[in-house]
Amino acid sequence: MADRKRLIPDASHPITISRCASKVVVGKGSLHIAETSDALALQEASYPPVLYIPRSDVDMSLLRRSEHTTHCPYKGEASYYSIPSLGEAGLNSVWTYETPFDAVGDIAGYLAFYPDRVSIELAS
Question: pLDDT of 30-45, one tens digit each?
């Protein structure tokens, strides 16, 4: 989508990506969705950090790709997944940048979860 805005992070809108030092567990009630020691934390401007989980550490059988997409001028095109077993709360509750812009290329192959829809727990 060549007509989409593309911006590069800078001092006015910084983006940093770092390894999360904690083990991350994603779930809802008895539903175990993901567990990893290889999460990335993306800090964008003044927004809360977002944890990105390697796709290989997510139970992809619980997710269904949706038609929903969004565009971020700093990261690129986001594709979404739903978690059908969570009903309405699971709709488009997971996103991924499959071909992110170069500045955030490290998040390719990772998934992020809305923390108001699932539990995201950190453990040492």
Answer: 999 999 999 999 999 9
By C-alpha distance, which of 90, 99, 95 is closest to 111? 95
35-42 CB contacts, 8 Å cutoff, 24+ apart: 40/106, 40/107, 40/110, 41/17, 42/15, 42/16, 42/17, 42/104, 42/107, 42/112
73, part of any domain: yes
* Residue 100 domain flag: yes
pTM attached to this predicted model: 0.95
- Collect all residues with Cβ–Cβ distance below 8 Å to 89 and sequence separation of at least 6: 28, 117
- Is 2 domain-assigned? no
CB 93 within 8 A of CB 113: yes
Q: How far is CA 66 from CA 13, 19, 47, 80, 120, in A?
A: 29, 28, 25, 6, 22
